[in-house]
Write a structure and sequence with these properties.
CATH class: Alpha Beta
Helix content: 40-55%
Number of helices: 8
CATH superfamily: Thiamin diphosphate (ThDP)-binding fold, Pyr/PP domains
CATH architecture: 3-Layer(aba) Sandwich
Shape: globular
Structural class: mainly alpha
Oligomer: single chain
Order of helices and strands: HHHEHHHEHH
Strand order of the largest sheet: 1-2
Largest sheet: 2 strands, parallel
Length: 206
């Protein structure tokens, strides 16, 4: 299956060769082009992680195939933030994790995720217990797959940053850090998410 997908993708790219380029908006120069390519690279890496996970599962060597396909746009969210902004990521936020890793100078992110897919004890994120996105140095706080369970935690992280600044006490993150929390449609329909969102609104109002 993965080979067929690879062939279809390669064929689609080949068919694009020679097409007339159409300018979309004013040119931002080589720096802008470089950043776009970096974000695109994270998106491609995320999709290839999904393909690799399915290939490993078919051959009896992988144990986690819930991927990030369709959520590659998360890479742009990571690109808009700083690598010091705490992130609590949904299990489909592979592109975010890869772009954050690039920002933080981590070159082993693809391998690290795959080690989780094969439940390797060398997995630096969870020790092979579960495939999750996490890294202390990248300010990515590991989460479980329990639906919406990380939303209240994200509210707590954001609240603690503000409170630490007011009290003048040490905090693991910058005083102006933005807390990012990604979640899916199943989480959005869960009472835990409703409670977390209501709490965030109430704290913001106060």
């Amino acid at each position: 299956m993965t080979e067929l997908l690879d062939e279809m993708f390669t064929r689609a790219i080949e068919e694009m060769r020679g097409l007339e380029r159409t300018a979309v908006g004013p040119s931002k120069g080589p720096e802008s082009a470089r950043r776009l390519l970096e974000v695109y690279d994270a998106q491609l890496g995320s999709r290839h992680l999904d393909l690799a996970a399915r290939w490993l599962q078919v051959h009896g060597r992988g144990y986690y195939t819930i991927g990030s396909s369709g959520h590659e746009g998360n890479a742009a969210v990571a690109a808009a933030l700083r690598p010091t902004d705490p992130a609590l990521l949904h299990y489909r936020s592979g592109a975010f994790f890869l772009e954050r890793a690039r920002q933080g100078g981590v070159t082993t992110a693809l391998r690290d995720v795959l080690l989780g897919v094969v439940a390797s004890t060398e997995d630096p994120i969870s020790g092979g217990r579960h495939k999750v996105f996490g890294s202390r140095s990248l300010a990515v706080i590991p989460q479980t797959s329990t639906i919406a369970s990380h939303l209240p935690r994200a509210v707590g992280v954001a609240f603690s940053i503000h409170r630490a600044r007011r009290l003048g006490v040490p905090c693991p993150w910058p005083s102006d850090a933005v807390t990012i929390c990604s979640f899916g449609d199943a989480s959005a329909d869960h009472s835990t998410a409703t409670g977390a969102i209501n709490a965030a609104i109430q704290v913001g109002y106060q």
